[in-house]
Amino acid sequence: MDLVRAKKSLGQHFLTDHNIAGKIAQSVPDSGLPLLEIGPGMGMLTRFLLEKPNELKVIEIDSESVAYLKQRFQDFPAQNILHADFLTIHPDEIFQQEFGVVGNFPYNISSQILFRVLEFRSRIPLLCGMFQKEVAQRVVAGHGSKTYGILSVLIQTWYDARILFPVSEKVFNPPPKVQSAVILLTRKNNPPLIGDPDLYIRMVKAAFNQRRKMLKNPLSAHFRIPVNTSYNSCRAEQLSLEDFKKLYDEIVWQYPRGAF
Hints:
The chain starts with a helix and ends in an 8-residue tail after the last helix. The chain contains 10 helices and 9 strands. It has 2 domains: 2-187, Rossmann fold, CATH 3.40.50.150; 197-252, Helicase, Ruva Protein, domain 3, CATH 1.10.8. Helix 5 packs parallel to helix 7 and helix 8 (197-207) crosses helix 10 (241-252). The longest helix has 12 residues, at 241-252. It is α/β, with parallel strands linked by helices. The chain is elongated, with a radius of gyration of 20 Å. The protein has a 7-stranded mixed sheet with strand order 4-3-2-5-6-9-7. Strands 1-8 form a two-stranded antiparallel ribbon.
C-alpha cells in the first residue's frame, strides 16, 4: 500500500476491482500469441494474465513499480519484467515474433500507445485493454459522428475495433474524474491496399487539421489536390473509410514512393 500512496501524488489511478481485471484478461482472444502488458503498476491485471497459457512479458517505466512487481511475482521470470518505455522501445527488444498488447493503459499517453501500435501493426495483430471512455469512443466512431477523427480512420483502416464493456470510475484508487471502457482491436485479414502508408497517414491527419473547413483547404496546404476531386466540397468527418481510400488513390499517383 505504500506504493499506492506514493503514486497517488503523481496522478496515477490503480485498478482495485478483481472482477474487472479478470474480465479484461478473459476478453483477450485465445490466439496463442505471446502477450505484452503495458503499465502493469501493482500487477492487478498481471495476476490474471499469468493464469493464461500465453507467454507474458510486462513493460513498466516506473522503477518503483518494477521493483514491486519483481517482489510480488517471484515465480515470474525477472527478465520478463521490462523496465522500459513502450513508446520508445523497438518490438525486437520485446519479442521476435508477433504479439498481442494488453493493459489498463495510462490515460495521459493512451493515444500515443495507439499510434505506436499502428506504427508496428505488422507485429501487433491484437490489442485488448482499458482506455478513457472518450478515447474508446473515438476509436470506434463512424463517419458523420462528432467523435470521428484521426484515430477513428487510422485504427479502423487496419483493425476491426469494438468496445467490449464500460468501466465505472469507482473501481480505481483514487477514482478518476472520467469513465473508462475496454476495447478490442484485431488486425484485419484484408485491409485496404495502401502502397504508401506514410502518405496515407499524413493525408488523414491533414484532413482533420481544420475539420470545420472543406477538405480542399487543409489538404491543399500539404498536397497537390486534383481540381476535379469529388471530395473538395466535403468535410473530413463526412468521409467514410472507403472515401478516404479513394481520396488517397487520387492523390498518391502524384508522389513517388516514400516521398513522405
